[in-house]
Amino acid sequence: MRVEIWTDINCPFCYIGKSRFEQALDAFPHKDEVEVVHRSFELDPTVKKGETGLVVPHIAHKYGISEAQAAANEQGLGQQAAALGLPYLTEGRDYGNSFDLHRLLHLAKDKGVQDALIDALYRGNFVDKESVFADEEHVVRLAVGAGLAEADVRGVLADPDAYAEDVRTDEREAAELGATGVPFFVLDRKYGVSGAQPAEVFTQALTQAWGARSPLTVIDGATGDADTCGPDGCAVPQA
Amino acid sequence: MRVEIWTDINCPFCYIGKSRFEQALDAFPHKDEVEVVHRSFELDPTVKKGETGLVVPHIAHKYGISEAQAAANEQGLGQQAAALGLPYLTEGRDYGNSFDLHRLLHLAKDKGVQDALIDALYRGNFVDKESVFADEEHVVRLAVGAGLAEADVRGVLADPDAYAEDVRTDEREAAELGATGVPFFVLDRKYGVSGAQPAEVFTQALTQAWGARSPLTVIDGATGDADTCGPDGCAVPQA
């Protein structure tokens, strides 16, 4: 079974939702047969590369709320995180363009360390004092800590085309699947869960999707089995 | 809609089947909404890296048929290819371990040129006199011709771990989906087509899978919409 999770490193509910999903997955009897893939979704692609600032005044300005309200939101998020045992930097978090972080997550997917990198980037953004948007060395340290080779990380960061197409493909697919926000969980392209739902909702979704697994319907036309190659050779009609 | 095609560069029916599938896809009214992904399947992973030789005596020895029969098989394959307008080197084709070629196909996927590379590798194996198994420079030329940067290609070839996990994941998924040979076509993880079927079978499969597309079933438990972040910010409960 495959669970695809669209997220952004900028997104507090993605950080919180991942933890709730993992509570459900850890208790799921078939967890070893569940493949989890992280997919890219930029919450705000209009933020330019290099543009950063503190989240609280940015949010207040953007949505026309007071800075006090925006600061209270961060406290509320911190409380939700704490309820899961997750640290959360309620003051001083910054925002920025996440495209390069998504490109690195695709590199990490290729290297088999995507889950480790997403956890590291969440920690880098929601816990560490250093910025993941304004401090490239911080990002490199996190990526190397997650198991990537430093040269690979610097190579991808230096080449704006590297994995760019993968990020855009993920974003197109999110739109096609109807996602308008994140986190967005898709199970076997059949069931969708939107938001940082309670763990029991993820348990329900895993159970339902597991029960709905079905073998492929084989389409073979009137000719039946056609020409294939397998470990026992190619079924070649004699000329 | 997504079509995944498990193939091996060693596999004549994969070369032929791709062409038949593309005939159907070209005539399919929704072809612009069909995403095609090539996935890895090693026909014979027991062939060691560096081991190569002519296909005809290899096949004859392996399956206990005469060399004349094995040579006649190649002629038969050449005729099937010719019927599609595909060139086919009926004499002198060699075999080898395809793991590195699959790793390059994953690099090409990341760079958005996977389809171009698979066509180039088929041409390299089934048409060109140079080997794709014994002549690394031939492979590099084909990959560069398909749009990859030479340094990337050489980097992947020099690092046996690069994209290795992607190849193995594809192979595990093929086994889980019930594929025992290739080419193996999977439409939206719902329909399967095995073998180099006639184009009309692919047309039927595309039509059937298109009709069966369905929106995700949303699972949201009793709480309804949960916490998400979107372009309009995060829906944060006031603390």
From TrEMBL, chains A, B:
GO terms for molecular function: oxidoreductase activity. The lineage of its organism: Bacteria, Bacillati, Actinomycetota, Actinomycetes, Kitasatosporales. Pfam families: DSBA (PF01323). Signal peptide: none annotated. Residues 3-206 form the DSBA-like thioredoxin domain. It comes from Streptomyces tabacisoli. InterPro entries: DSBA-like_thioredoxin_dom, Thioredoxin-like_sf. It comes from the Bacteria. Gene3D superfamilies: Glutaredoxin. This is DsbA family oxidoreductase.
